[in-house]
Amino acid sequence: MRLEEALESYALAERSGHDPDACAGGRWMCHMLLGRYERAWEESDAIAARCKPDRHRFWDGKPFEGRRVIVRCLHGLGDTIQFIRYAPLVRERAKTLIVEAQPALKRLIEESRVADAVITWGEREPEWDQQIEIVELPRIFRTTLETIPAKIPYLDLPAAAPIAAYDGATDLKVGIVWASSSYNPARSIPLKQMARIFEAPGTAFFSLQAGAERSELALWRDRIVDAHTDERCVVPAAATLKKLDLIVTADTMMAHLAGAMGRPVWTLLPFHCDWRWMKRGEDSPWYPTMRLFRQPRAGDWESVVDRLQAAIEETIKGRRLVPPGDPGAQAT
């Protein structure tokens, strides 16, 4: 995370004859972590100009106006949830917009009505003129920190139960996810390190954890309700989020889902965090209702849990998380 030094090293490496695309990719990561999105897009442009094949680059460079556009979601679920916010911007320009999403997300995107049609892999495609991979959209729109589309919620279940709003009259209902996927084990927090937050008075905890890590709940069955739902579709999980006052999660799909739905969400980040969270700060320009809890040094979850525990206690004392009836308000 010594980003300015890294930028100098990538420049030196390129001058010394190393692969320019690899160096540009490294600089791209540094600029994104520093919030310098304009500089990052310049690196993307340079990579594109060298015309090397890129399995993530589908856009033909032409405007969307009057064309039948298909957005393909070929990365992770979190990426789709984060960047589907651009669908209305594409739809404003295109003749029609089709989204090809992962099976688990198809129904939620359909119910959110951000596209003219939603399909999933293996289904028959409607006719299209232009295709885009979803992670291309921030660059296509030349996104800056000031222009991130952050109208929240942009994914929702219109027919689901009313949104919970904590006022202290009942226990604070907290959903937790502590383990990320095997893609990056550093994002996961051992549940035993989080366990002391379960003793906070006036709280009720609900596990949204998927996968083998659910077995870790056995030691805390008396303090946590297993609220995990069908992994084949995120709609049940989305419905559960609307019933909770707060979601506390590692860097997982659930963080993105809660943020996209405008739910108060506290995201626990490793020191070497992903570019989308940037290097500093407790807030996220991508998700106005999200609060970030960062490791001060690699591997230090103890400090994160200290701050998390204090924040939960402060919330309970204040008897408020977000203004009732205002799901788009900044989380405390």
Characterise the protein shown here.
- The chain has eleven helices and ten strands.
- By secondary structure, it is an alpha/beta fold.
- The protein has three domains: 3-49, no CATH class; 68-140, 3-Layer(aba) Sandwich (Rossmann fold), CATH 3.40.50; 172-318, Glycogen Phosphorylase B (Rossmann fold), CATH 3.40.50.
- Strands 7-6-5-8-9-10 form a six-stranded parallel sheet, with helices on both faces.
- β5, α8 and β6 (203-207) form a beta-alpha-beta unit.
- α1 (3-15) runs antiparallel to α2, α2 (20-33) packs antiparallel against α3 and α4 runs parallel beside α10 (253-260).
- It is globular, with a radius of gyration of 21 Å.
Primary descriptors:
14% strand; 11 helices; 3 domains; single chain; alpha/beta; 4-stranded parallel beta sheet; disordered C terminus; 6-stranded parallel beta sheet; Rossmann fold; 32% helix; 332 residues
Structure described in brief:
With 332 residues, the chain is of the alpha/beta class. The chain is 32% helix and 14% strand.
* Major sheet summary line: 6 strands, parallel
**Spatial strand sequence of the major β-sheet:** 7-6-5-8-9-10
Question: How many domain modules?
Answer: 3
- Kindly state the number of beta strands: 10
Low-confidence stretches: 323-332
Gyration radius, to the nearest Å? 21 Å
For the terminal residues, how far apart are their CA atoms?
28 Å
CATH class of the largest domain: Alpha Beta
> Which H/E pattern describes the elements?
HHHEHHEHEEHEHEEHEHEEH
Number of helices: 11
